[in-house]
Amino acid sequence: EVLHTIAQPHGKVLRIVIHNRANDLIESLIEFDCIVGAEACLNAINGADIYAGCCTLDVTFSKAQSLNVFKNDDDTYDYTNNNPSIAVHLKGIVKYYPYTLQCAITEIITNL
To answer: For the chain, which has fewer Cβ within 10 Å, the N-terminal or C-terminal residue?
Structure first.
Protein backbone atom coordinates (compact mmCIF):
# COMPACT_ATOMS: atom_id res chain seq x y z
CA GLU A 1 0.00 0.00 0.00
CA VAL A 2 2.77 2.46 0.89
CA LEU A 3 4.63 2.05 -2.41
CA HIS A 4 1.39 2.34 -4.39
CA THR A 5 0.46 5.51 -2.50
CA ILE A 6 3.88 7.02 -3.24
CA ALA A 7 4.03 5.99 -6.93
CA GLN A 8 0.41 6.41 -8.03
CA PRO A 9 0.38 10.24 -8.24
CA HIS A 10 3.09 10.06 -10.93
CA GLY A 11 1.54 7.52 -13.28
CA LYS A 12 -0.70 4.48 -13.59
CA VAL A 13 0.74 1.67 -11.48
CA LEU A 14 0.07 -1.77 -12.96
CA ARG A 15 1.86 -4.13 -10.57
CA ILE A 16 4.11 -4.06 -7.51
CA VAL A 17 6.38 -6.89 -6.35
CA ILE A 18 8.41 -6.82 -3.13
CA HIS A 19 10.97 -9.53 -3.66
CA ASN A 20 13.70 -9.27 -1.04
CA ARG A 21 13.73 -8.37 2.63
CA ALA A 22 17.08 -8.70 4.37
CA ASN A 23 19.57 -6.65 6.40
CA ASP A 24 17.40 -3.55 6.74
CA LEU A 25 16.82 -3.44 2.97
CA ILE A 26 13.64 -3.95 0.99
CA GLU A 27 13.84 -4.29 -2.79
CA SER A 28 10.72 -3.91 -4.86
CA LEU A 29 9.59 -3.44 -8.43
CA ILE A 30 6.88 -1.03 -9.53
CA GLU A 31 5.47 -1.49 -13.04
CA PHE A 32 3.87 1.48 -14.83
CA ASP A 33 1.81 1.56 -18.02
CA CYS A 34 4.08 4.08 -19.78
CA ILE A 35 7.55 5.59 -19.70
CA VAL A 36 6.20 9.05 -18.81
CA GLY A 37 4.79 7.83 -15.50
CA ALA A 38 7.85 5.75 -14.70
CA GLU A 39 10.22 8.67 -15.36
CA ALA A 40 8.04 11.11 -13.40
CA CYS A 41 8.00 8.72 -10.43
CA LEU A 42 11.75 8.11 -10.60
CA ASN A 43 12.47 11.85 -10.71
CA ALA A 44 10.05 12.59 -7.87
CA ILE A 45 10.88 9.86 -5.36
CA ASN A 46 14.52 8.90 -5.92
CA GLY A 47 16.45 9.89 -2.79
CA ALA A 48 13.27 10.77 -0.87
CA ASP A 49 12.37 9.33 2.52
CA ILE A 50 9.13 7.43 2.99
CA TYR A 51 9.05 8.63 6.60
CA ALA A 52 10.83 11.71 7.92
CA GLY A 53 14.53 10.87 8.19
CA CYS A 54 14.26 7.18 7.33
CA CYS A 55 13.34 4.61 4.69
CA THR A 56 15.25 6.36 1.92
CA LEU A 57 14.34 5.35 -1.64
CA ASP A 58 17.04 4.49 -4.17
CA VAL A 59 15.17 4.22 -7.48
CA THR A 60 16.50 3.08 -10.86
CA PHE A 61 15.00 1.58 -13.98
CA SER A 62 14.77 -2.19 -13.80
CA LYS A 63 15.83 -4.67 -16.46
CA ALA A 64 12.48 -6.42 -16.01
CA GLN A 65 10.02 -5.54 -18.75
CA SER A 66 6.96 -6.81 -16.92
CA LEU A 67 6.07 -8.35 -13.59
CA ASN A 68 4.24 -11.62 -13.01
CA VAL A 69 1.81 -11.53 -10.11
CA PHE A 70 0.01 -14.77 -9.25
CA LYS A 71 -1.82 -13.54 -6.15
CA ASN A 72 -2.56 -10.27 -4.42
CA ASP A 73 -1.02 -10.14 -0.95
CA ASP A 74 1.38 -8.03 1.14
CA ASP A 75 4.32 -8.68 -1.22
CA THR A 76 2.70 -8.73 -4.66
CA TYR A 77 -0.24 -6.88 -6.14
CA ASP A 78 -1.72 -6.64 -9.61
CA TYR A 79 -3.76 -3.44 -9.94
CA THR A 80 -5.03 -4.55 -13.37
CA ASN A 81 -6.78 -7.58 -11.83
CA ASN A 82 -10.28 -6.70 -10.64
CA ASN A 83 -10.74 -9.98 -8.77
CA PRO A 84 -7.92 -10.46 -6.23
CA SER A 85 -8.95 -14.07 -5.55
CA ILE A 86 -8.05 -15.12 -9.10
CA ALA A 87 -4.40 -15.50 -10.08
CA VAL A 88 -3.72 -13.91 -13.44
CA HIS A 89 -0.65 -14.64 -15.53
CA LEU A 90 -0.32 -12.01 -18.26
CA LYS A 91 3.02 -13.00 -19.77
CA GLY A 92 2.69 -12.88 -23.56
CA ILE A 93 -0.72 -11.21 -23.38
CA VAL A 94 0.41 -7.68 -22.49
CA LYS A 95 -1.01 -5.17 -24.99
CA TYR A 96 1.31 -2.32 -24.01
CA TYR A 97 5.00 -2.01 -23.30
CA PRO A 98 5.26 -1.76 -19.51
CA TYR A 99 7.96 0.20 -17.71
CA THR A 100 9.34 -0.99 -14.41
CA LEU A 101 11.24 0.80 -11.65
CA GLN A 102 13.43 -0.95 -9.12
CA CYS A 103 13.23 0.56 -5.63
CA ALA A 104 15.60 -0.19 -2.78
CA ILE A 105 14.40 1.08 0.58
CA THR A 106 17.00 1.32 3.35
CA GLU A 107 16.84 1.96 7.09
CA ILE A 108 13.62 0.04 7.63
CA ILE A 109 11.73 0.76 10.82
CA THR A 110 10.66 -2.53 12.39
CA ASN A 111 8.47 -1.11 15.15
CA LEU A 112 5.84 0.97 13.34
So the answer is: C
* Cα distances (Å, whole numbers) of residue 42 to 55, 84, 92, 99: 16, 27, 26, 11
The arrangement of strands across the sheet holding 54-61 comes to 49-51, 54-61, 99-106, 25-32, 13-22, 76-78
pLDDT for the residue 12: 92
Residue type, 13: V
- The pTM (predicted TM-score) of the whole model is 0.75
Q: Are 108 and 46 in contact (CB under 8 A)?
A: no
Closest alpha carbon to 35 in 27, 24, 43: 43
pLDDT at 91: 38
